[in-house]
Prior knowledge:
- The protein has helices at residues 17-27, 52-67, 101-114, 180-183, 188-196, and strands at 9-12, 33-36, 71-79, 123-133, 139-150, 166-168.
- The chain is an alpha/beta fold.
- A 6-stranded mixed β-sheet has the order 2-1-3-4-5-6.
- A hairpin with a 5-residue loop joins strand 4 and strand 5 (139-150).
- The chain is globular, with a radius of gyration of 17 Å.
Amino acid sequence: MARRLAAARLIVASHNAGKVREIAALLGPLGIEAVGAAELGLAEPEETGDTFIANAVLKASTAAEASGEPALADDSGLVVPALDGAPGIYSARWARPGKDFRVAMNRIETELAARGLETVGTAAYFVCALSLGWPDGHCETVEGRVDGTLAFPPRGPHGFGYDPIFVPEGHRRTFGEMKPEEKQPLTHRARAFEQLAALLPPRP
Ligand code: IMP
């Protein structure tokens, strides 16, 4: 039996403001208050796992143990099968040192071209692993995914990260061209949340 959350508040183990905002918007309607790890001054652990799930578990258990409260961590990224899965778990790192996603998006286009592959229309997907950790070290973990294709040059002012180059299946516009309320239900994170709901307190 999976363990269920009893508290009405969760620490969101992320220092990424875009992510904390999206997670808070998904938890709100479920009656859960979300508090960002940065607000509590929690340190960000180094992501040493070699899968999305391993990194989500690492971040959730570190934040739960440090805060003494249940914590939710998301590890997510963009996978391009034609690039052997890159950037994958390195999605955030491809934008460093300046956290500049124009650099990261440009690198995807350059590496596809260097292999003589199509850039526009190439298959890609976002993955989101969500791990709910308790202070005693127990974790429950789920995973969601959204398939789509790549668009170059990047398009749209909304969202964050790789949103301007990702066109979700069944749509023509990139996530970056969609307003938050339009993007949110389509995402890998929303799909992972559908599964997480079974681990949250039952709604009255
Ligand atoms: P991490 O999970 O904090 O290691 O970072 C995941 C990285 O993947 C983020 O910094 C974003 O660049 C990217 N990413 C994850 N989800 C999304 C999304 O919904 N849109 C665009 N980029 C995303």
